[in-house]
Every structure is written in structure tokens, then in C-alpha cells.
Amino acid sequence: MVRSLDAQATPRPLAPGVALRATVALIVVRAAYAYNWFDVGPALPQIGSTFGVGPAEWGLLVAAFLVSAGLFQVPAGFLSRRYGSRAVSLIGAGILAVGAAAAGAAPSFAVLLALRLVAGVGAALFFSPAIGLVASLYPRGHQGVPVGVFSSAFSLGSAAGIVVTALILPALGWQLSLVAGGVILGVPTLVCVFAVPPSVGAAPPRPSSPRSRLPAALRYPGVWAVGIAFIGLEGATSATAQFIVPWGESVQGWSIALAGVVGMMFVLPSFAGGPIGGRVAERYRNHRTQFLVATVIGALALATLPWAGLAGAILVGVVFSLAYGVIYAVMYVLPHYWREVPPEEIPLAIGLLNSIQLAGGAGVSAAFGAIVAAANYSVAWEVLVAVTLATLVALVFLPATPADAAGPLLAAEPAPR
Q1: How far apart are CA 128 and CA 291, in angstroms?
Q2: What is the C-alpha separation between 139 and 136, in angstroms, rounded?
Q3: The domain 19-201+214-411 belongs to what CATH superfamily?
């Protein structure tokens, strides 16, 4: 039997208009959340000038956010299981908004690092509970596309974070640009308080019998396999999005505005990959193959970046971002099929695999900055590609998706009335 992604699913389907409004509001928050991941990247040279730091420290700044976003994914899953996905996700978005805006007033690089750590905590509390929250707005069999679109909204927000920041930096400076990011997230978060019905994602009832000490989500091998397999990809997507503008300025000689537009192409096309990946993941059970094919295509495209001109860099960005858009959508739909993981533990499962990826990806991003400082960008890009492919070995341990949980069963379900 195919289960819902979230234990907090409502007993009866919501009215379509209510579900749509709540979904749109959450998608806007997801996009604004992503904006605050990547508005730091274009500002790295200005931050470096302000505090007298270089690429190695830039890598640490990128990694700081990823570290806390990764470490608090599992606690976010536990909190969601206790207090409900709605409360935890909206509180997390609020923390991210405040932390991101406060970073604009950082008096030193150490304080800036600390505030980005705080912002990462908020990001962790929002993400996996919010996926369950979106899924709980819809009946089973109709969750793949909304979850895929929600996942892809990250692309819109991260693209805006790169290109908008690159455009406003010359006029506003990095401090005000970071404050603007916090405001951009804070407003739709307040809207969500009213748009998402309190009954959706509410705190689940206390279990009649004590829970096992170690939740199944933490023991299931598929969670660990997916988490480890995409450490390289997480590092590649983060490092590429954050460093593409400085690379374009310093190596290619592009203006900051042009570099921002190119950087946008490394994230925006993945918006199309999300719905595609969500639908493919629901209809077909060969998830390991889907992961492998999409990752290899994206990695091979990224490997050509050091020799690409302007048009070539845009093409690389489109292919790379489409590939990882598909990958992440499949990744977040996949726990839907894990029979061994109880429905109420789906956010915890997603939180753990994200925790593994973000923590490992933070190390990859920091290493990227160190390699740039010690050698050059060309070497750093190729190391990034090698790590992305190397960590895929962990997919050997990903259990096959059961045949009776594949797409035809979902497609046979009647549409909600």
C-alpha cells in the first residue's frame, strides 16, 4: 500500500481552492528561503574587501550555513513528529529571515559566520517539515507534482538570490542586500500563518504505545544510501551557485551583472526538472537508475565549465541545473515508497538524508574555496566533478523500490472530488 508522505495528512481532502492557496503560499516561502541561501555568493568579493578575507574564508562562510542547516535536519524531523510540520516549518522560516537580515549588520567576519550559522538552523527547521506539509494538502497518489513544484521553487529563489543581488550590490552594498533578503522571506512567512489551515500539519496525537528508541527512519538503509550518495552533488550545487559570480568576474572578465545572469542559469532551469522528476518518480520504480543517469549527465556538463565561454557556460548551467532538479525531486518523493518507514517519520527520513548531504556538502564547499586559494578555479571545478561522481557509489546500498508501489497504482487512483 502506498502511504502519504506525512502523518499529519488530513482525514478528508481539503477544498481545491484552500489546498491551492496554501500550496502557492508555501511555494513562495520556499523560493524566498532559497533566495537567502544564495544572496551571499555575489557579495563574497565585497565581504572580502570589508573584512580583509579571501576565497578560503569565503568557502568557510558558505560552509557555515550548510553545516547548521545539515546538523539540525534530524532535530527538525523529531520536532515535526512532536509539534507538527506546520508549526516547525513556519518557525524555521522566521528564524532564517531574522538571521539572514541580521547578517547585514555583522560588525566582523566572525559575527557574520555566527549569524549565517543561525540562519542555517532556521533553514533546517523549515525544509523537511515543509515538504511533509505540502504533501499533506493532497491525497495519496496526487502528491508527486505538488512536491516536485515545491522542490523546484528553490530554483526560482536561488536564481533570484544570485541575479538580483548581483544587480543591487553596486547601489546598496552587501549589508543592505542581505537585509533585503531577510525581509523578502519574512513577509510571505507571515502570509503562510493565515493561508495554511491550522488543521493541516497539526501536532499528531500521542502514540498509544511507546515509540521504539530508534525510529525506523534513522535505521532504514535507503536513507543513509541516498544521503551519502549525494554529498558530492550537494557540494557541487552549493559551491557552483555561490562561486559562479566571483569566477565570472575574476577569471572570465564579465561584469557583475553579466556574471549574475550566467549564475542564474545554474539554478533557474532546475525549476523545470522538479515536476519532471516528481512525475517520473511516481510512475516508474527504477529510482536508482534515475539518480545515476541524471547525476552523470550533470557532472559531465560541469566538467566542461573551465573551458566554456559565455554561451558555453550558459549551456553548462542549463544542463547541470535541469539534472539536479530531477534528482532532488526524485529524492524527496522516494520516501513515499519506503514501507519500512512509518508515515509520521517521513519528515525525519528526509531530514536525515538532508543532514548527511548538507554536512558533507559543507566540507566540499569549504574545500572548493581552499583549492581556489591554493591553485585555481579550473582545478577546483574538476575536483568538484570527481567528488560528485565518487559519492554515487553509495547507491549500491539503496534498496530497490517494490514493484507494487510503482506508478500504475498511483495512476489508477481516482481524482479527488
Answers
A1: 20
A2: 7
A3: MFS general substrate transporter like domains (1.20.1250.20)
